[in-house]
Each structure stands twice: as structure tokens, then as C-alpha cells.
Amino acid sequence: MELTNLLSFLAVMLPVAYGAPTQAADSLHPEILNAMMRDLGLNAEQAVARVSHDNQATELISQLSGSIGDKFAGGWIDAGKTYVGVTDQATAEHVKAAGAVPVVMNTSLSKLEAAKEAMDQHLSSAIQARDTDTTGIASYFVDVTANKLVVESLADSQERAHALAARGNLSEGDYEVRIVKSLPSAAASVIGGNSYVINGKTRCSYGFAVSGGFVSAGHCGNQGDRVTAGASAGGEYVGDFAGSTFPGKDMSYVKTASSVQLYGAINNYNGGTIPVKGSQEAAQGASVCRSGYTTGVRCGTITGKDQTVILDGVNKVYGLSRSSACCDHGDSGGSFYSGSQGQGVTSATNGGCSDGGYSYFQPLNPILQNYGVSLITG
Q: Which residue of 20, 228, 232, 297 is 20 to 30 Å from 3, comparing CA positions?
């Protein structure tokens, strides 16, 4: 399709799609509403409007990203507006007509993602990784709002961060090294957010009920490990880890005993549950909440996607999303959700709730695809 025809199509068609949210705002569960009001500082009307806008914005960004092609530089939600990055002014004018706020940027998203992929491939190769010291490096990812590839490191590891960024073959203007105070660590300690015990020793939180069992974080257990219910050893037998991937990814599937009841719901830690209706992925900047045994329900926003994180300075995990919602040890594997749509399982924390920290989660849809299971909805 020629560019002129493509942009005409966008200008005519996208406002129609943008006005059709995938999740009706009036379906917002009261407990989700309460958590958003508490953690995001919103009143009820603002929270409902926020979810409605997030749904519409996510659809608009998705359609534009597929239609603009190599001129697309990313999309995000901020302060009630939908932003779409583009690499030329002509495309910007038509993106504006489609209902988004255009931002003209220097580098396409595909170029930045290719650089990150090159870094991932380098570190995933055992032989090549020996040539790269990742000591003191926390994570690296594409920051669509800054239009840069970002490497986060401790202050005394900046030289190593620059060396790692060089593996992406970007010019200095296309990447940035940011200083963090600490390194992320795994948050390890069926209704989503409830606790379970692995081999009578460690504790994690259920993610989502799926066909034949539940999904959770990979670092919670290895294939064959035994799972029991509750927060301490000696609970009722639940099942065994049928699959687990960590590091690389942080996902697992536990096949449950026939006696175990599986519910498409998440613990709201206020005496009830929140129904799970699907797994539509929310856009960066959208509101998100998480449920886990240690800290209950906490809400924030999705602040990044497809991030490579180096947990405890050792274990590299690819493709994580980042959230401003805090979590602590024992919350691992618990449910992340936006409205009634499942988003992922808790993977790691940097700082914890007492220190105003942030969290990482393994996206849900890749877990479902990896294990060939379907989400149980409520």
C-alpha cells in the first residue's frame, strides 16, 4: 500500500476503532477500583475513566504499530493522553488525525529492538558471554519515551554498562546508561495471589489458574518439585511442577491433582476475589495491579516492556515487563492484572514496598503459549 493511501486509511478508520474499548468501564470490579483509588490517588470516577482510556489507547497503539511499519517509534500512555512516536513529520500529521499525540523521534522502534536483541543473543551465548562482565548491571531495555536503549547499572559499573551497550552497535546518541542504587532480586519467599510452598521449604504465590493446573514464576521451583497449599510446610498436596524455565525466562506450570479446584479469580486480600476475564496485553503507561501473599494487592502503572534483567547480578531473564507497583519476597509468581485482564506473574523486585521499590513481571501470554495451556476465566 502506498504511503498516501496508508495514511488516509489510518485517518479514516482508526478513530472508529479507538472509540470501542475492549473492556467496558462499568465492569470494573469494586476491589480493583478500591486498590486503584488507594495506590494511584484517584477517586472512583477517575479510576473508571482511567481504565476505559487505557483500553482504548492500547487498541489505538496496537493498530498504529502494525500499520505505520518502520516509521513507528513506540507508543505509550501518560497523563490521560496517548502518545505515538514516529520518525517523520508527514506520518505525525496523520497519527494526530487518528486521535493520538504524535512525537517525532530520531530512531525507529525496530532499530532499537534489533540492538537489544543483539545484546540478548550475545549474553545468551555461553562462549560470547564470557567476554562480557555484567557485574553491577541491573537491566537493559528500550525506553520508548526517551527513544533510547537504556542500560541500568550501579555507579561503579558504568564502564561495563557502556561495553555491554556497544554490543548493540548503536551510536552514543541512541543509548543511555542510568545509575541505580541496587540490583533487582527474585521475589520468592488455586486462586491467584494465594501462597503455596515448594518442597516444604520456600514460598511463592499462585499466578493464574489454567487448564490442568496453574502458572507461576520459574524461579519458584524446578520440574518435579512438590507443591503444597498454604504459607507453611505440611499443607494439602496441590501438584508438581510439570515445567519450569529460569533463567532466560521466568515461567512455570504446575499440574495439579484431580481434587484441586481451579478458579478464574485473584485474591483481593480484602475477603473476596477478583474475576479474570482474559489476557489482553495492556500498553505501556496503563494502570496495573498485582496480588501476592506477602504484600497483598498493590497497584501502579506499566513503566516498561521487553526488559532484560540480571537478577542478583547473575541470572539473566529476557522479556520482562516493569511496573511501579511494589512487591516483596514471597510475592513471586503472583498475579499481575489490568482491569480484569491478566498481564503476567511477579518475577522480581528492586527495593520492596517499604523502600518505594518497583517490580518486574513475566508476561502471561508467552507462558500460556509455551506450555500450551488455556486461561481459566471467571
A: 20
Answer yes or no: 219 catalytic: yes
Phi (first) and psi of residue 132, to 5 degrees:
-125, 115
Rounded to whole angstroms, the Cα distance separating 325 from 339 reads 14
Q: Which of 120, 250, 306, 328 is catalytic?
A: 250
pLDDT of residue 134: 87
Catalytic residue status for 162: no
Cα separation, 329 vs 187, whole angstroms: 4
pLDDT at 30 over 90: no
Q: Give me the torsion for CA of 240, 242, 247, 251, rounded to 10°.
A: -90
**DSSP code string of 94-126:** HHHHTTSEEEE-SS-HHHHHHHHHHHHHHHHSH
Other Cβ atoms within 10 Å of 221 Cβ, number: 26
Report, as an integer, the average pLDDT of 355-376: 97
Q: What is d(CA 345, CA 348) in angstroms, rounded to the nearest whole number? A: 10
Q: What is the structure's pLDDT at 232?
A: 83
The pLDDT assigned to 95 comes to 95
* Closest among 252, 264, 346, 341 to 298, alpha carbons compared: 346
Closest CA to 241 of 262, 219, 260, 259: 219
Task: Say if strands 237-245 and 175-179 run parallel, antiparallel, or are unpaired.
Answer: unpaired
Among the listed residues 108, 332, 338, 340, the single catalytic one is 332
Asked if 177 contacts 220 with a C-beta cutoff of 8 angstroms, the reply is no
pLDDT digits (tens, 9 = 90+) for 293-339: 999 999 999 999 999 999 988 899 999 999 999 999 999 999 999 99
- Residue 144 to residue 121: CA distance in whole angstroms: 21
Q: List the domains of the chain with CATH numbers.
A: 34-105 (3.30.300.50), 110-179 (3.30.300.50), 188-377 (2.40.10.10)
The yes-or-no answer on residue 359 being catalytic is: no
In the predicted structure, residue 129 carries a pLDDT above the cut 80: no
Catalytic residue among 153, 219, 321, 324: 219
Residue 86, H or E segment: strand 81-86
DSSP 327: -
